[in-house]
Amino acid sequence: MKAVAYQQANAITSNPTLVDIEIQPPIAQGYDLLVRVQAISVNPVDTKIRKNVSAEPDQWKVLGWDAVGIVEAIGDKVSNFEVGDQVWYAGALNRQGSNSEFQLVDERIVGHKPKSLNAEQAAALPLTTITAWEMLFDRLQIPKVAADNTTILVIGGAGGVGSITIQLLKQLTNLTIISTASRSDTKAWVEQLGADYVLDHRQSLAEQIKLLDLTAPKYVFSTTQTDQHLADIAELIAPQGHFGLIDDPETLDIKIFKSKSVSVYWEFMFTRSMFETEDMMKQSELLNQVAQLIDDGQIKTTVSQVLSPINATNLIKAHQQIESGSTKGKIVLHGF
Questions:
Q1: Cis amide leading into 16 (omega within 30)
Q2: In whole angstroms, what is the distance from residue 261 CA to residue 27 CA?
Q3: Please, are residues 180 and 204 in contact by the beta-carbon 8 Å criterion?
Q4: Which contiguous run of DSSP H or E holds residue 71?
Q5: Which of 117, 227, 247, 313 has fewest C-beta within 10 Å?
């Protein structure tokens, strides 16, 4: 089967970096689905792994943690899917990724693809959807109906995770949504998705919050550059507030939150699959719930760019754009 892979951790400008290869297709066992991949999307985790993790000696490492495809075969323990089903998922960090014609994925982290979206549109969403959902409802434990005037600040609202976070908040909660964006096009994007107010994250967030006639945010979700905004967050968040992050700052001194008794949460969407937790099936369930929201017209895809085919040349372009930090929505690749 065709795949895009690498052997040594490297910069995207290295030669070679990602390359086109041919490898044997895997065999489905246990809870596994063997999926023929139709479309994928690229996330920051792809670039982080490529830069820091090499393949095992004499082996190839296949990246990719977002996919839409068709079930070609199932393991003997599979109970929720059949051959021919169209599925979407984000996969597991400790298995080969979706940048290949066929991929094995545990059914407990797979959902049925939204019927109203094509493969490219759907491929933009699984990883960011799981990340956003788990942060909002499992980590921060935001209620579907909060007290009036409860606010949340989403830092980096125009990115992949921010784009689905705003939509989930708008459709499933009554919170007032404050997002950040720094350019006119990204500001328009987050407003279109449902943000009630938009701040410029190049300026002091605390000072901008003071200018809004709102209660202090009870919730703050930082999707990027947390280290640059930490002091601002501590100043603007409400006493006994809840702060969550998903990025990887070099240091994270949370002592500045002590006086306000702020709770701090870190979300990593691969935790359930990596440790095969008892509630691993929750990822399948939430993907199915969001698929229904999409088919009901409440959530829309966050794809902003589609490249074809899925090959090394196009994946290198996507990695370069992700690393530039200027991506709006998601970059999707379609077809081998």
A1: yes
A2: 50
A3: no
A4: strand 67-74
A5: 313
What's the length of the chain? 336
Q: What is the pLDDT along the chain (336 residues), one digit of tens a residue?
A: 999 999 999 999 888 899 999 999 999 999 999 999 999 999 999 999 999 999 999 999 999 999 999 999 999 999 999 999 999 999 999 999 999 999 999 999 999 999 999 999 999 999 999 999 999 999 999 998 999 999 999 999 998 899 999 999 999 999 999 999 989 999 999 999 999 999 999 999 999 999 998 999 999 999 999 999 999 999 999 999 999 999 999 999 999 999 999 999 999 999 999 999 999 999 999 999 999 999 999 999 999 899 999 999 999 999 999 998 777 789 999 999
pTM passes above 0.85: yes
Half-sphere exposure at residue 91, Cβ-oriented, CA atoms within 13 angstroms: 29
- The angle subtended at Cα 56 by Cα 69 and Cα 90, nearest 5°, is 25
Phi, psi (rounded to 5 degrees) for 261? 50, 45
CA distance 103 to 69: 9
CA distance 277 to 210: 42
Nearest to 90 by CA among 161, 11, 5, 144: 161
Residue 295's φ and ψ, nearest 5 degrees, are -65, -20
Q: Identify whether the C-beta of residue 299 lies closer than 8 Å to the C-beta of residue 165.
A: no
Kindly state the DSSP code that residue 148 receives in the 8-state scheme: T
Eight-state DSSP code of residue 285:
H
> DSSP code of 139?
I
Measure the CA–CA gap between 155 and 231, rounded to whole angstroms.
13
203: helix, strand or coil: coil
Contact 257, 243 (CB under 8 A): yes
CA 126-132-135 angle, to 5 degrees, is 135
Q: How many CA atoms lie within 13 A of 324 on its CB side?
A: 10
In 181-280, where do the E strands start and end? 197-199, 219-222, 242-245, 263-266
